[in-house]
Amino acid sequence: MSRAVVEMRDRFRGAIITPGDEAYERSRRVYNAMIDRRPEVIFRAADAVDVREAVRYARETGLDLAVRGGGHSVPGFGTCDGVVIDLSDMRAVRVDPWARTARAGGGATWGDFNTATYPFGLATTGGIISTTGVAGLTLGGGIGHLTRAYGLSCDNLLSADVVTADGDLLLASTRQNEDLFWALRGGGGNFGIVTSFEFRLHPVKDIYGGLLFFDLRDAGDVLRFYREFIADAPERFSGFPAFQIAPPLPFIPEARHGEPMLAFVTCWAGPPAEGEALIDRIGEVAPVVAESIGVMPYPALNTAFDQLVPPGLQHYWKTAFARELTDDAIRAHLEHGPQVPVVNSTMHIYPINGACGRVAPDATAFACRDANFATVIAGMWPDPIDNEHNIRWVRDYYAALAPASDQAGYINFMAGDDQGRVKASFRQNYDRLARLKRRYDPGNLFHVNQNIAPAPTTG
After folding, report:
1. What would the DSSP string read from start to end of 230-270?
2. Cα–Cα distance for residue pair 361/334, rounded to 1 Å
3. Model confidence, pTM
4. Model confidence over 95-113: pLDDT tens digits?
């Protein structure tokens, strides 16, 4: 153990974990089992002061630095072979029901967040999986079930406590450090470590929705219906089609378990009767093989897929934005979607029109406000022996969609080999982001991410 680590123990309140410690093997693992790194030290921070100390340690030692919030990063950006700052003990969520706001620690998950806000009948846009971290999702934009009604997660961010590369703790909001606040809303983890997030909440408690499953032979009809339906559907409705191998759920006929189908995930955040009439229209497009639709707590929908994506799977994903779901795109989906390799893997076409699209493209770092669809091809499987075959499925699918898609993509869904797409994904906002990177992190300490390099210094 280095002298620097020994000295850190005297002023660090959280746990410091190094190779040889009993907790090391467990603590170094991340959500994507394809990622195998051996950090020199893991700082499990207890508070923002700990985060400041750990940032200074990383800067002074010159080691690579990774930041772990919820730990869900598909490319494994929550770990490295140098220093890991782990926020997983900073998970508290405090709700102010009168102001309709909530403050979440940098290590909180959306499950933590929804558990805290649901008793007050409040929510904000969060992830599709409850174990997703609040931090990573929000900093990259934040697409979820409530996007059409209330915008992205980052659109609902009111303020953030941020530890910068020089170890300062700043409050960023529309009134303080405004340029930093702008960059945090969609710019990823490039500008500092957010130790707490303050969100605007909305009156959402129980929703009407759930799952519909259709035969593959009807997938084209459902996709064509979806592109027309979602264009002007009431904004409290969110729903998306997905190619999915039918899991062994009780509402799916046993004879159909293990069969690839087109699923349709629905969420209506309004009066149930209105939602029932709306979702009935989807069920009229083609015969429904199986369905589980009804009134449920919003957090129940947020946890619906958790069992399909436990920690420890192999992950490889690709993503693309599109303004239109064209006939060519639908043909690509009909060719590659039915080849979904295992029950854990899937493809989702999220709608991001509505409230998200009414925000100006330069109002936050998230630039692609003219996109109506965000597609993710999420390759997830348990056995590394299948890596080559399943990665090929993702890549072939993405290549087939690319001619009908934007060059830009959602950075939270990008793979580790997508660094070349980062500039295009920030469009007109990239140059401003690069200048802010130079201001707040000129040495690129925060580079284990979909990285924005600091702009060159002009003389």
Report:
1. TTSS-TTEEEEEEEEEPP--TTS-GGGTT-EEEEEEEEE-S
2. 32
3. 0.96
4. 999 999 999 999 999 999 9
